[in-house]
Amino acid sequence: MEESGRGPQDVSSHPFPSCRYQLNVFASLSELMLDLLTISLAPGVPASLKNIPKKHSIIIRLWTNCFYRLLENLQRSSPTSKITLEYLQEFVYYAYTFCTSLLERNTFKEYRAGWLEALGDLARYRIPLRPFATQLPTPETGPDSDLKVV
After folding, report:
1. How many Å from the N-terminal Cα to the C-terminal Cα in the chain?
2. Whole-angstrom distance, CA of residue 33 vs CA of residue 13
3. What is the CA radius of gyration of the chain?
4. Model pTM?
C-alpha cells in the first residue's frame, strides 16, 4: 500500500483495519472537499468558480459524504463493540474540530448556518457517548487519537 501523499496507509497491523481505513478515507475526503471550498472561494477567482459551492451543494455533500454516513455506521455498530465505540468517539471529535475550524474562518462566513447545523448534528452523536467514555476529548485536552489524514 502507498505510504506517502494522500494514498492509503498500511492498516494490516491494526486490530480493526477496516474501521481505521474508513476513518482515514473519510478524513481525507473531508480535507479534499475543504481544499475545493478554499480554492473556489479564494479572492480573485472568477465568479463561475465562486458559484461552485452553491451550485453543487458542497456544504451538504461535505456533511453527508464525509461525516454523516460514517457516523451512522459507527453508531449502529457501537452498542456491540467497544472498539467501534472508541472509533465513533474519535471521529466525532475529528468532525467537531473540523466543523468548528470552518465556522471560525472568515472565508466561509457565508456558510455559517451550515457549519452551525453540522455542529448541532454532531451533538446528537456526542451526547450518547458520555456514559461510555471516561473522558471525551475536548478542545482543551486534545484528542487521544492517531487519526491521520492520508
Report:
1. 12
2. 29
3. 16
4. 0.71
